[in-house]
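Reopening this one. Same input as before:
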Amino acid sequence: MLAMQITDKAKELAAQRSLEFIEEGMVVGMGSGTTATHFIKLLGGRVKQGLKIRGISSSKASEQLAVSLSIPVIDFHACTEIDVTIDGADEVTPQLELIKGGGGALLREKIVASASKRFVVVADSSKLVNRLGKFPLPIEVIPMASPLVARKLEGLGIRSTVRRLATGSEFITDEGNLILDCECGEIDDPGKLAASIRQIIGVVEHGLFLKMADLALIASDLEVVELTK
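Same output, byte for byte:
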């Protein structure tokens, strides 16, 4: 319980620090997951105090939270460029390579990040790793193709399982797809693996976020360290 409280405090510290990158009039990308939730709640407090921004969400859950906090939410029909996106990560290396998608929103998260002038990652120190791969790599797939994709992944030496809810039913993404969680082990060449996965027909998107993050705010319960490119 104490460890969980310390981790939660670290997440809040990272989210608090990220507010320094938000300025009046910005379009802000709002991520998903526990650390991003802290950020959205803090951002809602700033909006209540008079900050004028517009937000674009990376999941239905983050959009619902933002709306509940009276944060003006728009989509890419209203604006195709985001000033800064604040989002979490399941793993981050010192080179700012990421694994994301533990919450199942990797497709929208990658779309939002790709449209951003600046992508800032917020995470607690347990997410910092020397090499990606300890956390299962999520891959979003078209439902009918999931057995085919799983077989192709086996050919790459990767064992995958369909993500399920606690009830046993399949986890369905906001876009109606499935998630394959892949046991990769330490990934020696993330770029090569990403390219191999993208060639598999039926794959919608993968959770390797490479050459996308500009800055990572990594927090312990005492301090926040900045990692840059």
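So the earlier flakiness isn't reproducible anymore. For the record, Residues 137-206 form a domain with the Alpha-Beta Plaits fold (CATH 3.30.70.260).
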